[in-house]
Amino acid sequence: MIPRITLLAALSLLAFSCNKQVEPPAAFGPLPSAAQLAWHEMEMNAFVHFTTNTFTGKEWGYGDEDTAIFNPTAFDADQWISTFKDAGFKGVILTCKHHDGFCLWPSAFTEHSVKNSPFKKDVVKEVSEACKRHGLKFGIYVSPWDRNHPQYGSPEYIQYYRNQLDELFTNYGPIFEMWFDGANGGDGFYGGKREARKINGATYYDWPTTLDLVRKHNPDVIFFSDAGPGVRWVGNERGTAGETNWNTITPDTLFAGKGGIENLLNTGSENGTRWIPAEVDVSIRPGWFYHAKEDSLVKSPEKLFQIYLTSVGRGSTLLLNIPPDRRGLIHQNDVAALKALRALLDETFKTNLAEKANVSASLVRGDAKQYAANNVSDKNPETYWTLNDNDTSGTLEFTFDKPQLVKYVLLQEYIKLGQRVKSFVIEAKAGDTWNVIGEGTTIGYKRIVKVEPIETTAVRITIRDAKACPVISNIELY
Ligand code: FUL
């Protein structure tokens, strides 16, 4: 019989090692706001380009279009939004006004709007209400560049632009994201209808004042522009975030429309001073607007899947443009492509092999259970595996009870404590040897690596380098 005193001592020792109080790592570097975190979690949003261009075949209208041409014959916002919802999109951003200045809502400040079209209906209202019905968030694109407005280029126009934002935020909220397009934000391009009208993009729009105004309506609205401050442009329209993608950037000298910063925006800056993640905007068709001649050029589900990997799979949010046609419907080819994309995503990411694997780690912060390796496979995004403050590398091993085919590895950092990882490698066991099957640099909110497909009994992930001790909340294997 074990003496009572020894048993008690053993039990209290056990209790001590399980409940050992180890401080969590301190936050490191710039952090996302609550609204930015929510934006990261949306992962996929739909962009909708719709205006007079849909009826003229143009991409950039001159602003002198007759409002009579805007006349969709079978407009159905529910068809758009239910299509997007089925595909997995969480939000929608609508071009309430594109560069031609035509307003999809009956603005009190201009005659160049739906109110003077035969269609008459308030498209912004129809779409924002359909979003509410289907549980998607609603966002707006309101082009600063306006080729219809006679005062574009003068201070009066800025007041006009602000009045319109006021109208939109008052009547169609809540609005989760607001797009400040960079076109004609620099000092190139042509300004008004068909004549040149130069502006100084760095100062003309006076963004800080506009932002303050909009924040009075919604303090949490995410502002997209080349330079943020909510989210930044990714530097291209091909659907590709940087293989290295820092959520941080130093925006001091940046502004919407500033040219020559595409590479910087694509990768972000490792030591950037602000959390301004990249949003990947790309169109399902060659153009942003619907053109019948592009019906056969809708991106294939396989191409869209690739884009998913280079956007969501690189820690960005995908903003996929799906333009309604002249009927005011999402064309059947686009609907079919989205359905097939959804099926591809569901099939690829169906069985997470990490859930049934045995997970172990080379190191655990303070040897404490609350930071153990299996936190990365427990489905709880609030628990994580982490190391002691000075440790910037460590290894996780997943062992299966029988060989499994592994094709994709999904990793997530606990970004509430900052973005840290700089380099990682993925290996798989073949017999007694470990083979490298993939590697990468940054992780951030989410990283999906397409590895060399392999039948294996174990996968090993090594964080090779990090700015501070890595904090990994989730790993999935497919
Ligand atoms: C660009 C615009 O000029 C295009 O027409 C489109 O709206 C795209 C999303 O942004 O800057």
Quick structural gist:
The chain is an alpha/beta fold and 478 residues long. Helix content is 24%, strand content 24%.
Can you tell me about this structure?
This protein has helices spanning 4-19, 34-42, 53-56, 77-87, 123-134, 155-171, 207-217, 262-267, 301-311, 332-348, and strands at 44-48, 91-97, 137-142, 175-179, 222-225, 231-233, 248-249, 274-275, 278-283, 317-321, 358-361, 385-386, 394-413, 421-430, 433-440, 447-466, 471-477. Residues 1-17 have low confidence and may be disordered. The protein folds into two domains: 6-25 and 352-477, Sandwich (Jelly Rolls); 34-330, Glycosidases (TIM Barrel). The chain is of the alpha/beta class and 478 residues long. The strands form three sheets. It has an eight-stranded parallel β-barrel with strand order 1-2-3-4-5-6-9-10, surrounded by four helices. It starts with a helix and ends with a strand. It has ten helices and 17 strands. 24% of the residues lie in helices and 24% in strands. The chain binds beta-L-fucopyranose. Beta-L-fucopyranose binds at residues 59, 181-183, 281, 288.
